[in-house]
Amino acid sequence: MKVVKNKKSEQFLNIKNFIPYTPEPEEALFAGAAHLQSEDGQDWYACQQLFSEDTLKITYDDNDVITCITRDISGLWPAGQSVAELPDTDENRRADISGGWQFKDGKVVQRVYSPEELRKKAEAEKVR
Predict the structure, then answer these.
(1) Which of 70, 87, 88, 95 is the most buried (most CB within 10 A)?
(2) Which domain of life is it from (predicted)?
(3) Residue 84 to residue 107: CA distance in whole angstroms
């Protein structure tokens, strides 16, 4: 099984772009269950064991926006998302899932909105 490591820190995982797939019957870890596979062919159920228990796990979307933060990998279902693990530090715990944080270059950073995103955000606030 191939593991994709975070470029900034060789000890933390960053597995990208999980999408639904149907494994061959003999390869299915759970018969009849929905399955996800990463862009490099890792089955979601199989790769969960690669994550450490004492780290934060995050899911993030195609725009690198953090959509979930947890310590329990089994609670995630990252369909259409990527999953990374990070050290459980105060700096990493400052993030939330409001849409204002991103996972960039192996780090949690405040989101920098593009001019188009700012325009859409302003329009949405006017409607409220």
Answers:
(1) 95
(2) Bacteria
(3) 10
Q: Provide the Cα torsion 77, 57, 16, 6; round to 10°.
A: -170
The pTM of the full predicted model, rounded to 2 decimals, is 0.83
Residues 6+ apart with CB under 8 A from 50: 1, 3, 13
Residues 97 and 10: their CA atoms lie apart, in Å, by: 25
**CB-based contact 36:17 (threshold 8 Å):** no
Q: Dmax over Cα atoms in the chain, in whole Å?
A: 54
Other C-beta atoms lying within 10 Å of the C-beta of residue 51? 20
Span 78-106, pLDDT tens digits: 999 999 999 999 999 999 999 999 999 99
CA 74 to chain centre: 13
